[in-house]
Hints:
The complex is a heterotrimer of chains A (406), B (336) and C (126).
Chain A: H1 51-70, H2 73-76, H3 82-95, H4 98-119, H5 121-147, H6 159-176, E1 180-182, E2 193-197, H7 205-217, E3 224-228, H8 238-244, E4 248-249, H9 252-260, E5 264-267, H10 271-275, H11 292-300, E6 304-310, E7 320-321, H12 323-329, E8 335-336, E9 356-359, H13 376-400
Parallel strand pairs in A: 1-9, 2-5, 2-6, 3-4, 3-5
Antiparallel strand pairs in A: 6-9, 7-8
Chain B: E1 4-8, H1 13-22, E2 30-34, E3 48-50, H2 59-66, E4 70-73, H3 84-103, E5 108-114, H4 141-159, E6 164-170, E7 173-174, H5 181-187, E8 192-194, E9 200-201, E10 204-205, H6 206-218, E11 223-227, E12 233-234, H7 235-241, E13 247-249, H8 251-260, H9 275-278, H10 286-290, H11 300-312, H12 321-334
Parallel strand pairs in B: 1-2, 1-4, 2-3, 4-5, 5-6, 6-11, 7-10, 8-13
Antiparallel strand pairs in B: 9-12
Helix pairs in contact in B: 1-6, 3-4
Chain C: H1 8-24, H2 26-32, E1 36-42, E2 46-51, E3 58-61, E4 70-75, H3 76-84, H4 89-95, E5 99-102, H5 104-109, H6 111-125
Parallel strand pairs in C: 1-4
Antiparallel strand pairs in C: 1-2, 2-3, 4-5
Helix pairs in contact in C: 1-6
Amino acid sequence: MVAMSTNGQCGATTAKGSPCRGRSVADTGYCRRHQPPAEEAAEPRSTGSTRGERSLREEVEDLLKRAVDRLPIGRLFPALSPGRVVETFRAGIEKVAPKAREELLRSARNFLIRQATWLATDTWKGAWTFLSGVADQYRGMLQRRARGDYEVDAYGMDEEFTDWIRPAFRFLYRFYWRVDTTGVQNVPGQGRGLIVANHSGVLPWDGAMIMTGIWEEHAEPRYVRTLYLDWFTQIPWVSQMLTRTGQILAHPENGERLLNEDRLVAVFPEGLKGVGKLFRDRYKLARFGRGGFARMAIRTGAPIIPTAVVGAEEIHPTFRRLHLVEKAFNMPIVPLTPTFPWLGVFGFIPLPSKWKIHFCDPVPTNRYRPEDADNFLVVSKVANQVRDSIQKKIHELLKERKGVFW
Amino acid sequence: MRGVYLVTGIGGDLARTFAARLWSLAGTKKVLGLAGPTGDRPAPKKVQVAEIDPRDPALVEFLEENKVDTVVHLDFLEEYRHQEEVFDRNVMGMLNVSAAAAESGARKLVLASSTWVYGAVYDNPNYLTEARPLRGRPHLSHMKERAEVERYAKEFVATHPRLVTTILRFAPILGPSIDSPLSRYLGLPNPPAAMGFDPLLQLLHEEDAVEALIAACRADVRGAVNVAADGIIPLLKLLRKAGRPYLPVFHPIANLATKLAPGFAAFRQMPIDVEYLRFPCVADTRRMKEELKLTPRLGLAEIVDDWTKKRLGLVGAPSGPAEVEELQEVEEDDWW
Amino acid sequence: MAKPFRDTKAVYDRLGGLFKALLADPDYGRMARGSVIRFRLSEPAAELRLNCRKDPAEVHCGASEGPADLELALPATLLHEVLSGKAGLADGYGDGRIQVRGSVFRLIAMKPLFDAAARLYQRKGK
């Protein structure tokens, strides 16, 4: 039993029952012989309580000791010294019923953690150092780039750069378009896979959001390589940006090579017909090309994941297309939207519609042999199956959707 | 296998190194050389140089007399503006040499070419296999001549099935001593880069080019084989690593300059076509690894470091006035 | 100074076990839920990936691909010091010995998790 110690005397009681007369060590309140047992047990012995509870208790005691240590009152009032507080706590916890103990310990721990974080000066010092460290790190990154010290993968993707602009994509994903992604477990966590989605919205933002969706929501986040239209390779800066973030020219040879390397690839078979759609034809799937994506998948045995994207049609609602301008400047699309071209450069800012992306059940292709890719009937069947899957899902999502912007 | 080799264009750096290395191949009995366009370079030891023009029909007799069984044709002069004499020697030379090889009963013919003959087109897949059509639209004469040589080589292979013809398409070669269009481009005081474009490039070290020629002599590979070091490097990264102060130029202007170059001396600085600054032209090297059984020893980082150290005397430093003078000297010396 | 980790295997045994135990706890698991954290250690070279998007959280020892929400590249000795309480994470960052990829704010928000890891580490070390 413990008793309050007075002026430097040991507070323990000897085996005989009389108070110990030894001098206490420092401000622990006990003489050397009666020092309380160490906070951390050498080996957690099961004394009826579960192992988890024992470690929890140790943790709480540890936190308590540190919390009290941080506050100076322990020095003024020996009773509130770390050792004594822990003893008091220990005694108290014994009184609590075993069943409620764990609950109590847990809430005590959570409380103490919060206090620890806020009270610790190094949290605040740390925050400042981190922020200045961020600036240093970015400067270092830019210097390295100027020297040419950066890595690029076999297709030109710059992982460091992609990681660096992720926050921008995350912002678009979570706050601007508030994308609701469902069915993400249908995307394989490893191995090859071909994501096939409907295309809309003039610019390839839907590809970017599919990519971000997998980064953010999938249990095994992976990089998705989307295949883009060859026209984009001719535009300065855009082509560079696309390559650096891992997008690759849409060519059957590229697609097959990527799939054979067990990568996750995303294609938009509607292509130009999809993004150039007028607003009145929204959500009506255009022809899915000549089934090149199906051929690619069958040849490599990659499962096809049909994906429905709803909300991308409304980011740049196209009322008319200026075909004359398109022909004159050799551009694939010049749309007339509520913002473009009236607002000039601001016309490139997309509208904040609410998006829903759903990954449908995968269509396996490994029951076909690679030679079946040359069989038009097989290719056609698979392509139509995928297309119907997507169209059906789009209708479902449209029905679910409450409004365009919320 | 009689072990008698004929190397044309022996004056060139690649040919000289290769001819000397031939003696390391088992079974080599004799190495002959045909003098290249610059005859003032000393021939390597143990190589008998004959002063026969590759366009000379008497070449057949020469090959038969010496019982040559492998002809390696490296006689190619890289010029940017069309010169009749150069064009004649490059294209007619190749036609004559290949016909002579077939006629004289040689067993193998090895031709050197470039992966840039595929052309850097906007819809090129990332890795070009040997089966791809050659789609380049070059303005500079060396690429035009290479494309023409390839076309004739294709016909030749089809009409002469008995002769083993290997066409080695080398990726842009960078090396301390070899002079290549890319090397000259990097050596420019301000290499122009197309604004907003950063195509992926492939490189090959000169030592590995020699190794490829040796491998072609050893193995019997028919048709075209791409030869390149593993990996790709974006153009801007290459320029930065080599420390070159590049100048971003709006590509239509650069295109125009290249077209007008014959008339305007100021535009004659560009040793490579602008399309290679915009679009990728990267070759797939599966055939090289599987059939030629070649694994290039030097990787991209080493190639760039090697070139930078030897050419500029420093690693990764931007060019100053002193270096510019040194470069000009180097260019005049190696102009062949 | 004696190296705290003899080799890569020692790193995986100690740190892998530490994080597994830490994330098994429901409260700490909840704190980290939804994040993928990767440690790239040097001297000895090791890579650890904590995938807290799975339930239960998965600790993968060894090289891994794919994006991570938070990535820390630091020498193994520094991590040992931080977990032993001898150095603060902020100090290493200020020196430039730690490279952080991903949201730094997420790192700051995870400070309680790192503190808990430190406590567990110190306890297990004794």
